[in-house]
Amino acid sequence: MEVFSNLAQGFAVAMSVDNLLACFIGVLIGTIVGVLPGIGPVGAMALLLPFSFGMDTGASLIMLAGIYYGSMYGGSTTSILLNVPGEAASVVTCLDGYQMAKKGRAGAALAVAGIGSWIAGTVGILLLMLFAPPLGQAALSFGPPEYFAISVVGMLLLSNLSGDSFLKSFLIFTVGMMISTIGIDAVTGYNRLSFGVLELTRGIDFLPVAMGLFGMAEVFAIAVEPYKVGDMIKVKFRELYPSRQELKKSVWPIIRGSFIGFPVGLIPGPAAILSSLISYRVEKGLSRRPEEFGKGAIEGVAGPESANNAASAGAMVPLLALGIPFAPATAVLLGGLMIHGVAPGPTFITGHAELFWLVIASMYIGNFMLLILNLPLVGVFASLTKVPPKTLIPIVTAIMFIGTYSLNNSLFDIGVLLFFGLLGFLLKYLCYSATPLLVGLVLGPVFEKGLRQGLIMADGNFLFFLQRPISGTLLGIAALIIIWTIYSGMKKQKLIDNCD
């Protein structure tokens, strides 16, 4: 009963005009970001971080979270009407959604995608509400050794967040951790890696790095090679009604997608993409007519679209309960918490219970807003893909420059933004993901602080970390991950040699 009373209090605060407006702005921007190819929720969230400074902490978190889960809705629109995935998680929707549109069933595909997203989002929020508080309570007993062990496991799992080669990702992750050490050491007071530059003594701020890697890099990419879209399939509002048979075929895929997506969201990695791929594979395997998949099967739209929305709720659990981001977008959300002086981690749910339940309540409201927005205005959102890059790029660049400068009123931060923008563009050109660098920047201080404080507790004896049950178990898991990675790499190399 305590859960429901807390949720009721969350709804009471969430229904204020300011919070409703923040929620609406977040889901609206999220939908637009999902529609526009290339920008992505991470870039949009990083872009709007500086504009949350003057907002209430709850309102800013509501807005940023709305962009995250709202983008999952918008991505399906262009996937179905244009065969262009507005968001990476909607790639799978193109397979059958666009084929349905070509057969004149675009309205049905859009309606099922919207309804499935809403049901899955609601189920995911319910599970988030039930799972996050107990996990956060259990984590209150964690000390420096446990946080060190968590960060080690996180290094090994999250460095491969993008699904690229482990070594490539770990290399970029390590660079992020190295950047996190720049500035004055909190323990000794010594200056580290500042090279006599005064501005570097305060360290590298999260915001210019995030905006550079994801926002500015995308601007450079679009400037070099603007994206192009084909002709849009028109759909009228009266065509948004699926037939009874289509609804019947969609019920179980939506339910299965909801319960596939949430646990996948708990796993470090590109959860939204993985969950939609798994859901598609499951639906194709269970179907009596698997040959219809790829040719306009509505199950191929209902399942994946439900799964990626449930995964976005699942990814919020480790962020809110442990303070560790398991997805790129939640890393930006973590930055938003830190900017507002809210300590992420197990104490967040107990120490900021009103904020936690406010976010949960706002997600229920936001999902309902998205359902209303995405069905009647589908044609309007899809037409946004026609905005020429020469109009879009200057607006986005100006917003990033203003936001970055307002952080410390420093031109140095503009330089940091441009530097990491060029770095992000270079990484993209070389087929390296920039996400591990951002996660390394976030986890670096956790790793260093846990290691140093743990060694102080143990008088320099590292065996102390292995003697504590939780940290010892986690470090054992880390060792198994390393062994498995080496073994998989050797096995793969052996297969390549045999083929040669």
Describe what you observe in this structure.
This protein is mostly helical. The protein is 73% helix and 1% strand. The chain has one domain. The chain contains 22 helices and 2 strands. Helix 1 packs across helix 16 (353-374), helix 5 (91-102) packs antiparallel against helix 6 and helix 10 packs parallel to helix 12 (299-314). It is globular. The model has no long low-confidence stretch (mean pLDDT 77).
List the SSEs and their pairings.
Elements: H1 2-14, H2 17-35, H3 40-48, H4 57-81, H5 91-102, H6 106-138, H7 144-158, H8 166-180, E1 183-184, E2 191-192, H9 206-224, H10 244-265, H11 271-286, H12 299-314, H13 316-322, H14 328-339, H15 347-351, H16 353-374, H17 378-383, H18 389-408, H19 411-429, H20 435-457, H21 463-467, H22 469-499
Antiparallel strand pairs: 1-2
Tally of DSSP β-strands:
2
Structural class: mainly alpha
CA(first)-CA(last) distance: 64 Å
The portion of residues assigned to helices is: over 70%
Number of structural domains: 1
Strand order of the largest sheet: 1-2
Whole-number average pLDDT?
77
Number of helices: 22
Report the radius of gyration as a whole number of Å: 23 Å
Q: Helices and strands, in N-to-C order? A: HHHHHHHHEEHHHHHHHHHHHHHH
DSSP strand content: under 5%
Low-pLDDT runs of 5+ residues are none
Key words describing this protein structure:
500 residues, two-stranded antiparallel sheet, globular
Short recap of the structure:
73% of the residues lie in helices and 1% in strands. It has helices at residues 2-14, 17-35, 40-48, 57-81, 91-102, 106-138, 144-158, 166-180, 206-224, 244-265, 271-286, 299-314, 316-322, 328-339, 347-351, 353-374, 378-383, 389-408, 411-429, 435-457, 463-467, 469-499; strands at residues 183-184, 191-192.
